[in-house]
Every structure is written in C-alpha cells, then in structure tokens.
Amino acid sequence: MTMTFRPTIVIVLDGLDPMYLESTETPNLEALATYGSFRLVQAVIPTVTNVNHAAIITGSFPERTRIVSNFRFDPKTRQGTFIETADFLAAPTILERVAQAGGRTVLITSKRKLLHFLGRGVHTAVTAEEPPDELVAALGTPPPIYSETVDDWTLQALLYIVEHYHPDLVYCTTTDYALHRWPPGAPEARHYLTQIDRRIGELLQRVPDHRIVVTADHGMRAKRRAIDLAAALAQYGIEATFVPPIRDRYVVHHRNMGGAGYVFVHRGSVEQARDILAALPGIEAVYDSGQAADLFHLPISDIGDLFVLGDEHTVFAPSGTLPTIATEIDLRSHGSRHEAIVPLWGLGTDVSTASWNIDVPRLLGLASEGRA
Predict the structure, then answer these.
(1) What is the pLDDT of residue 115?
(2) What's the pLDDT tens digit per position in 107-131?
(3) What is the mean pLDDT for each group of 10 consecutive residues in the chain (372 residues)?
C-alpha cells in the first residue's frame, strides 16, 4: 500500500506547561490556534516522558503500551533497567504504521534515550546528542543536552530534514531542561519559548501544505517538599522498594524526584503501608494496584503494590538520598496529576474533539483500533 495522506509533522514540546504560554508572547503558536485549532487536553499519569511519548506515538494508554515509567523494576531480582529501547514498547507506533504503508518516516529528538525507544520503523533517526555529520556540517555542532539552546538546534534539524528529505511523517521532540530550571515569566524561560516559537514560525512558512500537530508530554511545577517513602515505611518495619517513574539518566533535570511513584512491598502489610503513606504530609492519594490500574489505565502487573501521588508541591526521592524522611527542596519537576494539563495545537487537523494528548494518532487517521 502506498501513502496518499498529506505530509505530517508531530512536535512534542517536552514539559510545556500551559502556564508558560501565559507569560510569553508566542505569535506563531497563536497563529496555529487562529488558523488551525487549539485545546487544553489531559496527559497520561504518571506525567513523565517515556509514559506519555509511548502513549502519544501509539495512541494507547499504558495498559497497552506497557510503559509505566522511565525505568523498569523487577521485584524478583530487585534490579531495574532504564527504558531506552523499543523492546519495552508493546504497541505499534504511528511511525511504524506509516512506514509499513510505504511512507517515509523520521524521528528527531534532543534526548538520546528516545532515539531507540521510539525509533522502531523509522527511515531516518536523529538525536542532538549524537548528531549525524550531515547535520553538523549544515547546522553546526549541537549545544550540550544540559543547555537552554539544544532544542533550538533540534528544531533547526527538523527544518533541514523536512526541506531536504521530504518525509511523509516526522515525530520531533525537545527536552525539558530549560523548563526544569526556570519558572514561567523568568527571562530565561521567556527567551527559550521565544526561540521555540520562532522556529515553528519558520516551519509554517516553509511547509504551509503540511499537517502540523504540536503538544506536550507533561507540564511542570515548582516543588518545595521531598519525601523518602521507603524510609517512612522502614520506621514501621515494612521493607519496600520505591520506584520513581521519573528516574532516568538525566538527573540534572530533576534529581530523579517526581510527584508519583510505585511501591513494591517485600515484607510487611500492604494495607498498613498504605495507611502509613496516606498519613504523610504532601501525599495526595495512595492507591492499591487494582485501583491504580482502573483509574489510570495502567497494567496491574507492572506497578507494584501501591501507587502514590503527591500534592502540587511534593515529590518523592530515591531511597536513601535525603537526610531525613521529609526535606525542604527547591526544584521544578513533574509526575503528578498537577502536571497533567497540556496544550494541543493542530493545523490541517482539527483538535477540538481531543480530550488527551494521546488522541493525536486518531486525529491524524493513524490510530490502531482501540486505545486500551
């Protein structure tokens, strides 16, 4: 089968909380809304990168993708591994479906970890952390991944590839380093978003006939309290492992502290553990695995015994990293339901019926049957 649909570009702006849009002029994103459509939608919980990218690129909830974290923990061995290859992804992606139908597909990402995780079925894959010689010659060497300018390079790479490769489908994503560092309204955050908006304006000028969808994987909020959940349980003789869904290699971004977490109880009562955690300050909700699976469309076999969500100002720390069970911090992070509202723009595609960021494949006519 040969592809006949309009060339399409999907851009996921990592960590773009709608609050940033309220404090920065973004005329090109506003043009997308004016001449296309715009809607605030729901991201998948836990609101972390791998979970939402897997959901967006497949159009499926975690119960189908089997991606519930950036890190997979095996309770039998008590060991884990970073989720950085497509071997973990259980559902087909839109890149795969377009490639199988004869279309040319491209993946562009600032973060190296997403290259092989999302890249199944692509013809061309680019990461700013390992740029191909052709793009270095054309655009220069990318800035470091821990910089406010790396995403500008990534979007320049998008412009170059669209112009020279003429792909049928591009999936492009940035990193959220700048938004972890700077709050809405800060000069640095405004400068960063102005850069993003300028490149999107260039894209609109160069490919006015393309369908363009822009969304985010999660929001971003200020955090003031960190809690060591495993240490809190250990006080009562309960042995447990806490797995932060946000955990990945990019520790400068978030110190592996996010507003959600899975608790695997090895010794002691799960019910008692639930009561202990629910009584801690900063805990918004504690669900057993059955409740969490039903409420958040998670695969029950992969989420431990308890799923914990923090309030807007609370994150959970990897075990043994805090001086006390609860510590004051100054951090911008995500993972909870408070980072679950994200923007969605569409040009050439009406997004007004969307409820979730994972509706993107459906809106583009690329969804497989069902989302579960």
Answers:
(1) 96
(2) 999 999 999 999 998 999 999 999 9
(3) 76 98 97 97 98 98 97 91 95 96 97 95 96 98 97 98 97 97 97 98 96 98 98 97 93 90 97 98 98 98 97 96 96 98 97 98 85 54
Cβ atoms of 305 and 2 within 8 Å: the answer is no
Q: State the CATH architecture for 222-333.
A: 2-Layer Sandwich (3.30)
pLDDT, residue 1, reads 38
What is the three-state SS of the chain?
CCCCCCCEEEEECCCCCHHHHHCCCCHHHHHHHHHCEEEEEECCCCCCHHHHHHHHHHCCCHHHHCCCCCEEEECCCCEEEECCCHHHCCCCCHHHHHHHCCCCEEEEECCCHHHHHHCCCCCEEEECCCCCHHHHHHHCCCCCCCCCCHHHHHHHHHHHHHHHHCCCEEEEECCCHHHHHCCCCCHHHHHHHHHHHHHHHHHHHHCCCCEEEEECCCCCEEEEEEECHHHHHHCCCCEEEEECCCCCCCHHHHCCCECEEEEEEEECCHHHHHHHHHCCCCEEEEEEHHHHHHHHCCCHHHCCCEEEEECCCEEECCCCCCCCCEEEEEEEECCCHHHCEEEEEEECCCCCCCCEHHHHHHHCCCCCCCCC
- What's the CATH architecture for 8-219+340-363? 3-Layer(aba) Sandwich (3.40)
